[in-house]
Amino acid sequence: MSLQVPVGKQRNFILEEPARINLLTGSVRSTKTWAVNLKVLKDIVSLPDGNILFVGNTGTSLYRNVLSQIKDLVGKANFEMRAGKKECEIFGRTVWIEGADNVSSYKKIEGESLLMAYIDEWSTIPESFTNMLLSRLSDPGARLYGTCNPETPRHYLYKNFIQRSDELNIKVWKFTLDDNPYLPLEYKRDLEKEYPKGTVFYDRFILGNWVAAEGRVFGLFDKGKHCGVPPATLRPKELRIGADYGTHNACAFVALEKYLVPGRTKPTWYVAREYYWDSVVEHAQKTDADYSKDMAKFASEQWGYSSGQPGITYGDNTQKMYASTIEVDPSAASFILQLQRDGLHKARTADNDVLGGIRKIASMIGNGDLIINSEKCPVLVSEMETYAWDQSAADRGEDKPQKIDDHVVDALKYAVNSI
Length: 419
Hints:
- By secondary structure, this protein is α/β, with parallel strands linked by helices.
- The chain is built from 15 helices and 16 strands.
- It has helices at about 10-15, 30-45, 60-75, 125-135, 155-160, 185-195, 200-205, 225, 280, 290-300, 335-340, 355-365, 380-385, 390-395, 405-415, and strands at about 20-25, 50-55, 80, 85-90, 95-100, 115-120, 145-150, 170-175, 240-245, 250-260, 270-275, 310-315, 320, 325-330, 345-350, 370.
- The protein has an 8-stranded mixed β-sheet, with helices on one face. Strands 15-14-9-10-11-16 form a 6-stranded mixed β-sheet.
- Strand 9 and strand 10 (about 250-260) form a beta hairpin.
- Helix 2 (about 30-45) packs across helix 3.
């Protein structure tokens, strides 16, 4: 591993005398962790005797984000991992390791006396653990270092520490992408595409600001810009289907078709069509078997069957394409079983990462990688224009979309999460 010489804000942080609490927050890939790692190594070799604790959301995430980097910095001869004891040795000094992924984690450190602590991904650590940790930092000159990406301004880190920086013994450092001079310009541009403007993810992870998730979830979506159909001369290379299941609520499917469009380096996914059945509106409730039959029809552009295996059929019927995956609402275990019994063996439990799916949809739309056929997907277009963040959840410091008119969007999230 080549050592990148600390410059600018990194250098200032490392050389400046620390406060009792030292928080580095801001953009992704802005050298927050890199700077703290170097600072901590400096303290490990210079501080007097005392206990040191490193904390992550889990031991695994801590090793991947922090310890593996430190190991590369100091070399194998100066680093020993003792996972069974939840500790490691750095430059001959023992460092305790702990995960804090639930509200009861604080019990793990009751009674400890600490000289130094380091928290990775601090915004994922429960407030109860942070409070207990601060009470354990009782040695003379004790200090806490922490890194995190911004969250909602209602998060306890922002309310209890950043907003009170004038009254606490704390130093808050905000890092941006420009504080990492070693980051290639092309990579920065890629990051800005992955967290597109007009989303809360851009404000937090690119600009490094603590902002609430408010208003429209897909504020960047513009029907005039982000809807269309594929070139008539092209044929799709892959079909993926997402399904949001409902009996009393609406049931929705979406079909994503992958095209290789000339002049584009990445595939373009078109939301080719949707299925939407609201039993309340239709005054008719469907069973799993009914929905399975509808899925078999939906999976074919011709709305027909092909030896029990639906596929898209073109023109002279010589080309057929079958769904590579049918991503189904994780709560719909009985429906998945029905689909598989009916020969739709690609049906499986979808990845229900809500925020990850929202970010991915926004990124793909913003980059032109996801285009919606508005004529075939009118409900999806309507939901994209009205899908909003839940203000009551935001008031609690949580990022959650409203569970209103979201069935086709949820089906889209399931499909997109599989890409």
